[in-house]
Give the backbone structure.
Amino acid sequence: MNLAEKFDTLKDRLKAMDRIVIAFSGGVDSSFLLKAATLSGLSEIFAVTGISDSLPEEECRSAEKLAASLNVRHEKVATEEMKNSSYTSNPPNRCYHCKKELFGKLKEIARQEKFPYILDGTNADDAHDWRPGRQAAAEEGVTSPLLEAGLTKKEIRKLSQKLGLPTWDKPATPCLSSRFPYGQEITSQALDRVHSAELFIGKLGVSELRVRKEGETARIEILPDEFPVLTDRTTSKKIADYLKTLGFRHVTLDLQGFRSGSANELLQDKKK
């Protein structure tokens, strides 16, 4: 199918569902799904955003703003994965425990309000990646219409741009817990340190950024072309000084540059 046909297939599938709850993070995929739903003639759409220490506050505000701009009912629900040691111990399947908690909350909302479908923004590319959360989606009966329509991330961005969505070129924004190597405990304080570090560095003008917390070391990942933004002597000192006030003893720039999912590299090496 071409892109237009895929989009029509998605809208037809959504229309047939009639009343839906969408797991809405405000990212590229869930924002596009929400927009597509508004164009599909459904009876009712309910966007729900899971709130926890691993979600930056600005992401929550962005989700609220977008839902309001689409005139869609939107609510926030507090998730409690931080109370689950199977999550905070940070095993390789950490995302399973997070999604299990979120989808469990959405399932209860859907039951109470008699919504027959719960949707998430999983796309066709995700089927080829390490996604422990997919197991939780299957267990809780969550439907992934973007995946069913065969829409890739690139195609979703292209359609989002045509539809005028502000998220069309938004960088990937995985939860803050993804900044920790597997096996390192996740705490609210550590999440806050990582978030503060990324807010500080992000204001310096880098387009892609991760601050990986590895023990007492902050490992900064940015695009190689943007290294000069941070390596100026005055700027690098400001960064190091600030991150040390957050509790980091060592501050490093990863010379391999930004790459999504770098926490999985050690797992892949062990499998070889």
